[in-house]
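As a warm-up, study this chain.
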Amino acid sequence: MNIVLIIVFGLALISQCEISLATELELHSPDAMTISFVDQKMQRFQETHQMSGAVAVTLGDRVVYARGFGVADNTVTPAQLCSPDTQFFIGSVTKQFTAAAVLHVLYARYGDVNALREALHKPLSEYLPSNDSIWAGDTPVWVNHVTLHHLLTHTSGIVSYTEGPSFLANVGNPISPIELVNTFKNEPVEFEPGAKYGYCNSGYFLLGKVVERLSGANLRHLTKG
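Now compare it with the structure written out below.
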């Protein structure tokens, strides 16, 4: 019997007080002991780590277990609990798809794993040259030193646009790609590329642009397959 466990974690803030578990639970599996085992394990995990999210177990093409854990929204009273139908903020879940898309388009271009590895260590200027529209005629100094590998591994040293003083105040407002890049491109790197780890959302935005330039397709459409 093939059982697939799918876990989706929410990004909701979790209260320090005791968290109630959501009551959404369905058991339709002939192997109830297996499902009970999963339920017990997830309850313990939630109690230990104060997880907010949803868990599903599929048997073939059937969902045999679905349950929400923790709080989906603690800004309302009473707090809204997670359920199998809770819609979570995407957050940085998209980064894994962007990374996969980078490898996909590079392999499609070079057709060889070794060449792909070499491509990852080429400077960003190889893929987003000075005449690329994303720079709006003002290419950053670091574009010749930062590689795709640096961007993928958060070791570029580029300032993350989410750390800017106006980010939270304008997070809900529309912004063009060029305007977004303008918020960080002329900032000096925080450390020498490759010297250490520093989480960077700017890097993954640029990786998305690399994918679009190499594939000729919109990243959103490309990752939809």
